[in-house]
């Protein structure tokens, strides 16, 4: 199997869970429809898959962490719904379909996002792991998704748009908040939730570092793909950042150096997997390689 | 001390904590300013005070539950920010000051709300209680604030506006979702977080029932005050629901019967406090009475 096929197999578990998990919560019909419209609109399910695979590699059972894994996709989805709003990026389309507020209306889109974000924390509590570890993982997610993480990164990103003189360090910090924190936390929370199954502090540290590295690599590659074009990007229209006058890795350090930097981070991520073996370890290594292979 | 003075004393603890708790989280400056603008805009701090007083009455320490209590005010505040948005209620004013999106802008208001909601769950994890109880209390809050609770209630409320034939039962369910769930959960989470200090399942059940009853009474009284007018209402402009053609308790069952119904619920709430004594128990009884006294 190729890494894409393996990713799809893991994603299918997430897909099935996501498709059913909101149905029995007594959510008002119109709101449920709007939440599911965006939640089930496709995507690679990368974040939940990272939770699952790290947890399983470290000894946890898939069923034990699936609700927590699903919560990361709910958080990712809510952020896309709110980012698309007219007051934000004002995007009419998301993955080739009308964005939530175009399909429904703005009020519904705001509330669908609020609902998904709130339910996400509810599903986190369903993790079948020692309660102290669940609390630790929830605290991590709140920090990563919150105002010093994903939400804060969006604010910083907007403040950088069109601004001259954004430095590489500022760009790095902004991305680490806006997209990196959630990817890092996906890996790290998977490891935290496997502590009851034997995962050690070193495992948690490696998961965090792996997540940090592939998160940065992912962002650099996305910036590169914005220049060279690729269907496999994270879903942004080609050239969008360029057109808005944003600083990107290629504009700051050049195309070739960006590609080399992404390669370097991916190599470091793969090295972190050395203590592990088995299909999950192989998959995590291939997944890291796949990120950067897209630009070679 | 009057009940209002006692409420203010408890609220002062919450106020102090809220004023400082976001400062050391590395939140981008503009976002932090917007979050604190709404969070520190006043209000009775009823929800966090209910957490504190129930927890303390059942043996928990104030410091142990203060972060969790504060999280309820963050959730309440985020809901007000998002409700005021142009796509929702389009309110330019909140408590006599410009609403968040008027003071800042819509994008900032959306993100400030998202940030407060996310941080709320982070502060819940800081409760100093047995981890299993913390997880239980977080699950309760996610359910109450989520798409089958507060967020869902907002959707149902909008769907009822201007609609003929809303029944008393439909109105009751809508309010129990939109405002009741959070008040119920304030009391119940306080009791849950006191389980490690000796609170029993019966205590938790009484807290839940007290919260349910005063929540309904509060809503009925607010509807009554919309008709008869009172400065002490929950903050809605007098007559606003009437003008929008909404069904309310007085329009459905009449003014006098509404007042009697609120009185009945408050009496039941006070009865639930019979097993308890001391200043917290006295305060909770006086608080319930105070709700309904406003219309007599």
TrEMBL record, chains A, B:
Family statement: Belongs to the FPP/GGPP synthase family.
Cofactor: Mg(2+)
Keywords, in A-Z order: Isoprene biosynthesis, Magnesium, Metal-binding, Transferase
EC number in record: 2.5.1.10
Organism superkingdom: Bacteria
GO cellular component, as recorded: cytoplasm
GO MF: (2E,6E)-farnesyl diphosphate synthase activity; metal ion binding
The keyword Metal-binding belongs to this UniProt entry's keyword annotation: yes
The protein's enzyme class: transferase
Protein name: Geranyltranstransferase
InterPro entries linked to this entry: Isoprenoid_synthase_dom_sf, Polyprenyl_synt, Polyprenyl_synt_CS, Prenyl_diphosphate_synthase
A Pfam cross-reference name: polyprenyl_synt
Any one GO biological process: terpenoid biosynthetic process
């Amino acid at each position: 199997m190729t890494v894409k096929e393996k990713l799809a197999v893991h994603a299918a578990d997430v897909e099935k869970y996501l498709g059913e998990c909101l149905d029995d919560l007594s959510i008002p019909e119109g709101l449920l429809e709007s939440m599911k419209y965006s939640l089930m609109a496709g995507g690679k399910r990368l974040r939940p898959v990272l939770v699952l695979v790290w947890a399983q590699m470290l000894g946890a059972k898939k069923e034990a962490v699936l609700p927590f894994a699903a919560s990361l996709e709910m958080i990712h989805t809510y952020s896309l719904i709110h980012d698309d709003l007219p007051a934000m990026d004002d995007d009419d389309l998301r993955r080739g379909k009308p964005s939530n507020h175009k399909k429904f209306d703005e009020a519904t889109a705001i509330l669908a996002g609020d609902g998904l974000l709130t339910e996400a924390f509810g599903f986190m509590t369903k993790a079948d792991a020692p309660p102290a570890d669940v609390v630790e993982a929830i605290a991590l997610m709140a920090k990563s998704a919150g105002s010093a993480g994903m939400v804060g990164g969006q604010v910083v990103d907007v403040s950088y748009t069109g601004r001259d003189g954004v430095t590489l360090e500022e760009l790095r910090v902004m991305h680490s908040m806006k997209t990196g924190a959630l990817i890092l936390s996906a890996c790290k929370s998977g490891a935290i939730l496997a502590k009851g199954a034997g995962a050690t502090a070193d495992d948690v540290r490696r998961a965090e570092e792996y997540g940090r590295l592939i998160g940065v690599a992912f962002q650099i590659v996305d910036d590169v793909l914005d220049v060279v074009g690729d269907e496999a990007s994270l879903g942004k229209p080609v050239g969008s950042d360029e057109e808005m006058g944003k600083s990107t890795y290629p504009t700051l350090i050049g195309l070739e150096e960006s590609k080399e930097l992404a390669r370097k981070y991916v190599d470091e991520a793969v090295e972190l997997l050395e203590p592990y073996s088995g299909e999950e370890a192989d998959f995590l290594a291939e997944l890291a390689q796949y990120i950067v292979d897209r630009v070679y």
